[in-house]
Write a structure and sequence with these properties.
The protein is mostly helical. It has 10 helices and 2 strands. Helix 5 runs antiparallel to helix 6 and helix 8 packs parallel to helix 10.
Length: 205
């Protein structure tokens, strides 16, 4: 049960790649020829409070509000103090801090996970933290490490290509996606193919 829950938590940040891709698609469809950068935030919805006031709550991926993420941090920290190898608590802490924009704390939690067990998903998610923190070189290194650990992980290719697209290096972004399509097959390949097509269209318009 813990393993399933943990993998679900890992997808919270990994799936941000697809939010970015959706934003890119919307931008390319505008027809104004303007280069679009990828978004770095998780999906969010604003809902009115139940009291009918003007107060609103921002709900992020997984249906949790930012306040809920913040509220769970003390308990997660206590759990980690009691058991520093509690991977579920460490990952939950990383996700909570990421959603709150506490990138230094999120990175620290992911590094503790990697010290226990190195894996592609965690490397990809740490890359997302560095990307949104503005540490581009570190993000690239983590995405590349993720791909080296698991060449079939689609998220890392999309995220890495997105970094190069943001830097204006479309040729490098296309190179990353082309490389990924050698290993990512079937339905998993569709995001890479879509991104590849969108980037290619920007070079021919």
């Amino acid at each position: 049960m813990t393993r399933t829950t943990r993998r679900g938590g890992r997808l919270v940040i990994a799936l941000i790649a697809f939010v970015a891709l959706a934003a890119l698609a919307a931008g390319c469809g505008s027809g104004d020829g303007t280069d679009e950068t990828t978004t770095s935030s998780a999906p969010s919805t604003t809902v009115a409070s139940t009291e009918g006031s003007t107060n609103e709550t921002t709900v992020v991926e997984g249906g949790k509000s930012l306040a809920e993420y913040e509220a769970e941090i003390p308990d997660l920290e206590k759990a980690i103090t009691a058991d520093p190898t509690d991977l579920y608590a460490l990952e939950s802490l990383a996700v909570a801090n990421y959603q709150l924009g506490n990138y230094e704390e999120a990175a620290a939690a992911y590094k503790k996970i990697l010290a226990i067990k190195d894996d592609a998903f965690t490397r990809n998610n740490l890359g997302n933290v560095y990307r949104d923190w503005g540490k581009t070189d570190e993000a690239i290194a983590e995405y590349e490490a993720s791909i080296a650990l698991d060449p079939t992980l689609k998220y890392a290719y999309v995220n890495l290509a997105g970094i190069y697209q943001t830097k204006g290096d479309i040729a490098k972004a296309l190179e990353v996606l082309k490389s990924g399509l050698k290993y990512v097959q079937g339905e998993d390949a569709k995001p890479l193919e879509t991104f590849q097509g969108q980037l290619t269209s920007t070079t021919t318009t």
